[in-house]
Amino acid sequence: MRKIGTFFYHIGQGFIGISRNIVMSSASVLVLVSCMLIVGTFYLVIDNFSVNLKSTDNINMIKITIPDELTDDQVTRVFSDVLELKEKLDNVEKVEFFTKMQNLQIYREKNPKLSDYLVIFNEDDNPLPASIEITFTSFTDPDFEMDEVYQLKNKLEEIENIHNEDIHENIALYDKVTSVTDTLTMVALYMLVILLLVSLFVIMNTIKLGMHSRRHEIMFMRYVGATKSFIRTPFIIEGIIIGLISAAVAYGLQFYVYNYIIADILTENSTINSASIIELAPFENYRTLLIYGFLGIGFFAGVVSSSLSIKKYLKV
Amino acid sequence: MIEFTDVSMVYPNGTVALRNVNLRIENGEFVFIIGHSGAGKTTLTKLLLREERISSGKLMVNGFRLDKIRQRKIPYLRRTMGVVFQDFRLFDDKTAYENVAFAMRVIGEKPALIKKRVPFFLNVVGLGDKYDSFPDELSGGEQQRVAFARALVNNPQIIVADEPTGNVDSDMTNEIMELLIKINKLGKTVIVVTHDREVVTRYNKRVITIDDGEITCDKIGGYC
Ligand SMILES: Nc1ncnc2c1ncn2[C@@H]1O[C@H](COP(=O)(O)OP(=O)(O)OP(=O)(O)O)[C@@H](O)[C@H]1O
Ligand SMILES: [Mg+2]
Question: Of A48, A213, B95, B191, which residue is least crowded by CB atoms under 10 Å?
Fold first, then answer.
């Protein structure tokens, strides 16, 4: 009973603290919301890019097209050379050989709308070459060595009867996009740290101001034997309330920023740029993560800043 | 029970406020502490509350050993003492009732108990009809009495009053002294710091004289 009564007393005091100091409290919410929103937006953009990239076909493979003029013996030689190279690398998942006919079959399956036109091709009249596909283990694997891919590519060029133009890969694209998203991630992390520090600073000052205006009460509480935690709790709750309100506001704003602003810039709905850059994942996919993330940031900022600011007043 | 054994107290700036104090005050006693300005009277009360630490010696207060006490035990020590400050330290934005209730609220007492005890102690100090007055609607003496009710409300064993008659007229002084005697009769130990010699001579109580940080006299009814 006593505990519960005290708990509600503290919550009430927390709200009183905020309302007494509404201007600074609002400023704290504003700064914290900006922090969450900027970091959230960065995260959503980065994640959409990498999801789109990873779902792109043929990204983690090298495809060798076999020139039609090679004899069966020569083709077998090429394939065994490739298999030999594979043995020396750890990050190759599989090496497959596709005949001209298999490739035609695959092409038909992939393009059902064209099947009417594709019937004219057959075993004797097949424009598609035979091919060898080398598939790597996932690039997201932390052990993956991108260098090995380039080394392999160089070695493939040395195989007899295979020329530079027969080797196809999208790895450079992957590399580029990854390095862009990596950079963006770093920027987002730095921003998170800086904005979080700014938020902590503002909330700390808000709570210090509240404590300063109540310093006589705090002094008195110490004299009559209030415990430190009793004195501290309303201020920490004040910080937590600021954090939670910020999380709620940031979540609402993030929804609009994502569905209306980011969507507008990055997708075919775009009014700025008619070309579709990527296909945007639905906001629902990020709901849980954003809720936990924002609540986490808010809670952390609230607790840390209020705990730090109260120290000075608890000395007696 | 309060027991000073060879207690010295030196402030960080080097001022020796108390030297070699030996003193024992039993439960239920009424004690005046007198001495010149700067003698160390307030310092002595600060030591009791563990607002300041003793520099050497041993100090026992209500079963707590203050030279060894842990930080988190200090609130519980303070709950055994009620302090009335010279400047009352009432909260201007709280009524008499709220001022007294606040002292209970902040040590986590139940609202039901608060509702019972606050009116009781406001009646003890004779403010039964002024529950809802704010401090600036009360006379100096009445404010002082609110401060006493607040010091009493958590049922402390010891009441410490530093200069309670410091800035009131003689009628008021008598009123306050009668109140202190009444509180003493409730079984509380009462420690009154004062340099009002007239008051001290009028009441035949134990008088401890401090001079330059040392106890120079300790006897019933008057000075040495
Ligand atoms: N916080 C402090 N830091 C340093 N010295 C202090 C401090 N407080 C008091 N003193 C010194 O300690 C000595 C005792 O001071 P104390 O306040 O105990 O005197 P007092 O007997 O209460 O005097 P008064 O009758 O004027 O209230 C004085 O010399 C004073 O200057
Ligand atoms: Mg003094």
Answer: A213
